[in-house]
Amino acid sequence: MIFNRLPQKWRKLWKFAAANYFLILFIAIVGFVGLVSAYRMFLVKPKYVYAKVKVSQGLWWANTGRAPIWFVNGLKKDMARKSPTTRNPKAKIVSMRYYPYWGSNQYDIYLLLRLRVNGNSVTGYSFNRSGLVVGSPIEFSLPSVEVTGTVLDIYEKQPSRNYVEKTITLVKSNAYPWEYDGITVGDRYFNGEEVVFEVLSKSQADNAFYNTESLSNSISFYPEPRKVVTVKARIKLQENGDQLVYGEEQEIKLGKNMNIGVNKFQFEDFQIAALE
């Protein structure tokens, strides 16, 4: 027999393998998995996509709290989560934009992320073993902060900002005198990447209705006069087809009320009267 013709040491190895074939099979499987993992880790070029994410807790339809200022300060551009083996970034903040939410001390935060993903544009992408699609939740850790949010859009390449600069006229017909005094020409808002709003001029006029001492229909007298306050400002908007959008989600149209914060003042219930 061929077995009897083998050298003594080979016959011992054969007997050991026959007696421990489960162990040999296990070692072979582990070795195969290790080779595949090493190939994918070191030889296969990683796939990256860009995702726009609104920082929040849970899904987009959930009523969740917005981020306080301490969370905004904890996020920094170029922060990255790196793979412990290859040291390549798995998630990196490419840009960060944030806007104060009116009537609160909270912010809407929008991140553009560069993510290492599995899959392709045909079958779909996954990140951290979860599907990466518009509307899906996303969660990952950075060196100093835990990020959770909702995916708003996905890009194969880093998107460019399609800004258009406009002059906007905002009017509030029942403004208190202190509101006019609180508005400063030259005041602006920097969203973390660029200046997107700057006050160019302001004016005020008396509102005769609110200053009338005796009003019809039993409307009570207003002890403090109200003013018609008009503000002109330079604003940067995103063009999305026929839409003009401020701050990622606030659509700008004539007649709409606009709430926007600058460094020293919070515009609330100012109506858009002109856009040129």
Task: Give a description of the structure.
By secondary structure, this protein is of the alpha+beta class. Helices cover 20% and strands 46% of the residues. The model is unreliable at 214-219 (pLDDT under 50). The relative contact order is 0.13. The protein has helices spanning 2-5, 8-19, 21-43, 69-74, 177-182, 208-211, and strands spanning 47-55, 67-68, 80-82, 89-100, 106-120, 124-127, 130-132, 137-142, 145-155, 163-175, 188-190, 195-206, 227-240, 243-246, 250-251, 257-261, 266-275. Strands 1, 2, 3, 4, 5, 6, 7, 8 and 9 form a 9-stranded antiparallel β-sheet that branches. Strands 10, 11, 12, 13, 14, 15, 16 and 17 form an 8-stranded antiparallel β-sheet that branches. The chain is elongated and about 110 Å long. The protein contains 6 helices and 17 strands. The protein starts with a helix and ends with a strand.
What is the residue-mean pLDDT, rounded to a whole number? 81
Largest beta sheet, briefly? 9 strands, antiparallel
Could you tell me how far the N terminus lies from the C terminus, measured between alpha carbons in angstroms?
Answer: 96 Å
> Oligomeric status of the shown chains?
single chain
The H-and-E topology, N to C, reads as HHHEEHEEEEEEEEHEEHEEEEE
Beta content:
over 45%
Rg over CA atoms: 30 Å
Unreliable spans are 214-219
Please count the beta strands (DSSP E, at least 2 residues each).
17
The portion of residues assigned to helices is 10-25%
Large-scale geometry: elongated
Number of helices: 6
- Class from helix and strand fractions: alpha+beta
